[in-house]
Amino acid sequence: MSFHVLPLLLLLHLVARLPASTPAPAVVTHLPGFDGPLPFHLETGYVGVEEETGTELFYYFVESERSPGTDPVILWLTGGPRCSGFCGMVFQVGPINFVVAPYNGSLPQLVYNPYSWSKIASIIFLDTPVGAGFSYAHDPKGYDVGDISSSWQVVTFLDKWFSDHPRYASNPFYIGGTSYAGKVVPLIAQYISQGNEQRRQDEINLKGYLVGNPITGLRFDDFNSRIPYGHGVGIISDQLYEAAMENCEGNYVSPMNKMCAVVINTIENLISELYEEYILGDRCVHDAPKPVKNDTSRNRFLSEEQFQLSKSSPHPTINCFNYRYYLSNIWANDHRTRDALRIKKGKNIFLKECLHSKGTIGTWVRCIKGFPYAYDVPSSIEYQFNLTTRGYRALVFR
């Protein structure tokens, strides 16, 4: 072999090992399953948030349909952790919904949501932490994140996103989310606030945060509140509620005496007959993949969805609220959908039970489990207190 060929081969080898460059954001005018052009501005793309591991977060951006130059910009996070931001777009506050119809083998249909928050605000739906939705890392070590590290990645994402979208930089900015996102939203808001004050980044015009059904912390009101709430909506009788108040002394998580334990066990049995995410609906099987059983209170409290990619379960019937989740798994894993959203393709990634076999992303799962995650923020109360006492607006809703 020629001596001059060696440097060229070495260069080609090194280039092949580098992460692929992040493509420019794509404007999506049509979505598979939606009849006609989209009646709103949709942009999708990736933003690199960690160079060492090649971590890239995927986002959907829906521009305000009213006055995008002045309307607020909202970053919306879904719970889990590691439920896709797409959930927020189609099941919560976004501009499209699935048509609930019996699945006949064709692509599930989408319809415009006239009650979308995008009527008055621009919304970024983000797949975070890495591994959620279509976000990914080139190095498997990149999936080992937690509350703190993933929150910093979101701050990095926002810094880069606003740099690439300077026309929104002066708009009022809010961070919102549901369930487990309620624990990290105040943390991210505090990081942004501190960064603005210390000029560590270009200023983000943060005005406040909003959280729905939020997780806050293990020993606070997350599970204690279930008893008063259950009584308030008629799940628990006056007699049971009074017995709990009399015997448990306000602690409904760790019963301190036998009578309290008996009452709490009775209440838990009643609650177990309900579909906790939507108490007015039927209690149904989860959408595939199958929920993972957890015995520890730590996992019981921490996860909105406990899913494992390697197992399957029967899909829910059409009368179940989470039949929509079943439809989303079908829709997001169709190649036409991935092409329309400009999902990246690349080398396979193996990580524990999660096999990414269709390029860098692999099988899309609404809420994925199996990646390492550090629950290293015990409570968000401190961050909420810091933000509200410094004048930031807060909305907590159920």
From TrEMBL:
GO molecular function: acyltransferase activity, transferring groups other than amino-acyl groups; serine-type carboxypeptidase activity
Superkingdom in the source lineage: Eukaryota
Family stated for the protein in its record: Belongs to the peptidase S10 family.
Source species taxonomy: Eukaryota, Viridiplantae, Streptophyta, Embryophyta, Tracheophyta
InterPro entries associated with the record: AB_hydrolase_fold, Peptidase_S10
Entry protein name: Carboxypeptidase
GO BP annotation list: proteolysis; secondary metabolic process
Signal peptide: 1-20
Coiled-coil residue spans: none
Entry keyword set: Signal
Classification via PANTHER family: CARBOXYPEPTIDASE (PTHR11802:SF364), SERINE PROTEASE FAMILY S10 SERINE CARBOXYPEPTIDASE (PTHR11802)
